[in-house]
Amino acid sequence: MNKIEHIGIAVNDMAASVALYEKLLNTAVYKTETVESEQVQTAFLQSGPNKIELLEALSPDSAIAKFLEKKGEGIHHVAFEVDDIIAEMARLKSEGFILLSDEPKPGADNKMVCFVHPKTAGGVLVELVQGRS
């Protein structure tokens, strides 16, 4: 794993959260995107080398909606950049981690992604991300 790529934050109200984080970080959202496969709307902010991804549920059945219902707004996941997501997934499986998918899938911000189950990662939902060519 190369670095923390971004921190994902689950929010109830995207417009209010964008206004809050733009003020907090003193920077504007540089990209918004809908990820239909996850039923989520995203907004990305960057401050120096650090990125924040705001996540709003588009469906009451989405993982973000379930997270918000159970835990409320807050940190949802930590994403790590990897050079070879397939190799990293295989390495983590061999180390006993549970992955939430068998193959990487398209995610936001032109990335391929895979999540590591929090029960095998110290209670933290970990996302692996690799840029798509």
UniProtKB/TrEMBL annotation:
Its EC number is 5.1.99.1. Transmembrane segments: none annotated. One of its GO terms (molecular function) is methylmalonyl-CoA epimerase activity. Residues 3-131 form the VOC domain. The keyword Isomerase applies. It is an enzyme of class 5 (isomerase). InterPro entries: Glyas_Bleomycin-R_OHBP_Dase (IPR029068), MeMalonyl-CoA_epimerase (IPR017515), MMCE/EMCE_epimerase (IPR051785), VOC_core (IPR037523). It comes from the Bacteria. Pfam families: Glyoxalase_4. Keywords: Isomerase, Metal-binding. The keyword Mitochondrion does not apply. NCBIfam families: metmalonyl_epim (TIGR03081). Belongs to the methylmalonyl-CoA epimerase family. This is Methylmalonyl-CoA epimerase. It comes from Mucilaginibacter calamicampi.
